[in-house]
Amino acid sequence: MKILALESSCDETAAAIVENGRTVLSSVVASQVEEHKLYGGVVPEIASRRHCEAVVPVTKKALADAGLQLSDVDAVAVTYAPGLIGALLVGVNFAKGLAMAADKPLIPVHHLRSHVAANYITSPELKPPFLCLVVSGGHTHIVHVKDYTEIRVLGQTRDDAAGEAFDKAARAMGMPYPGGIELDKTAEGGDEHAFSLPHPRVDGAPYDFSFSGLKTAVINLIHNAEQRGEELPTKDLAASYRCAVVDCLERNFLKAAEATGSTKLVIAGGVSANRLLRRRLEAACAERGWQFFRPALSLCGDNAAMVGAQAYYEFLAGHTAENDLNARPEMPMEAN
Ligand code: ATP
Ligand code: MG
Ligand code: FE
């Protein structure tokens, strides 16, 4: 089954053709990041406009790269939640139009479920059940993926997402948006113990996260040093901060794995590209004899190939939509 998938939840306009949830026939991503960089973050109004401009050429290119016509695909899938409402609406309305015109089923896909599904492309042998740490720009969840479309959230962040915490600290360190990637690069070879930073816990909720105190601690360190006319060693500061964030992620994720008896651990979302997080979890799983899966770097950030992968399983579970499908800015991962 060939699915044409679309993604427009944030600042990437993407289209892809995926066969049977695992084989990517084409994948096109048009990123707006250079434009949003000017403002230090995503400007929703600009994002919607750019999606409107890009959605047709990106979709045409995905079809052309796969050597297919719209009539050759078996269904149209689209990210419909969660995300920026104006951005999501562009993809949803375009997908509805395509599905109606070509008389194909329409498959709505939850953005975070699709981040998880990026792993089905990278690791064709991966099958549920497994435990997944979803770490992205706007979300940080520990989820039990019981089956492809049966998901239980065990814990989540109470404030900032891991990606947001990385981006905001990176900004304070003078790195351009989205700074998470550069902070990660800068941290390589730095001294992780140079600065002592808090490792927040949430009382009574061992799988929940809180990053705002840690983020504020590092921002205060930088501002206080500035006032004294001092410059902190960025490499060591980035290394200490990255280490503290990863310590929290690893601590709760391993605790959840032990409590649920999970021996198959998976990471997903933009922050799953983080070098230290990958190394730490790889080592922790190897030590315990557990399996560890992570997406190819090209599939960690937003793309439509992952939407096409999850859409296949949503279709098999009977999750299709009619032409009254609407976009939703928020939606729990359990619901579909
Ligand atoms: P969401 O998926 O929650 O709706 P989003 O789609 O904007 O949010 P993603 O595209 O999944 O988020 O991920 C982007 C985030 O990943 C950014 O915050 C970015 O800084 C972060 N990120 C990317 N690479 C790395 C890295 N190597 N280390 C840390 N963070 C990273
Ligand atoms: Mg993005
Ligand atoms: Fe995302």
UniProtKB/TrEMBL annotation:
Q: Which residues form the Gcp-like domain?
A: 23-308
Q: Where in the cell is it found?
A: Cytoplasm
- Choose any GO biological process term that the UniProt entry carries and state it: tRNA threonylcarbamoyladenosine modification
**So where does substrate get bound?**
134-138, 167, 180, 184, 274
Q: What is its main location?
A: cytoplasm
Cross-referenced Pfam families, in alphabetical order?
TsaD
Keywords, ordered alphabetically: Acyltransferase, Cytoplasm, Iron, Metal-binding, Transferase, tRNA processing
Q: Where does Fe cation bind?
A: 111, 115, 302
Which CDD domains does this chain map to?
Answer: ASKHA_NBD_TsaD_bac
Q: E.C. number, please?
A: 2.3.1.234
Enzyme class, one word? transferase
User: What does it do?
Assistant: Required for the formation of a threonylcarbamoyl group on adenosine at position 37 (t(6)A37) in tRNAs that read codons beginning with adenine. Is involved in the transfer of the threonylcarbamoyl moiety of threonylcarbamoyl-AMP (TC-AMP) to the N6 group of A37, together with TsaE and TsaB. TsaD likely plays a direct catalytic role in this reaction.
Family matches, as NCBIfam families: gcp_kae1 (TIGR00329), T6A_TsaD_YgjD (TIGR03723)
Name of this chain's protein:
tRNA N6-adenosine threonylcarbamoyltransferase
Q: Which organism is it from?
A: Caproicibacterium argilliputei
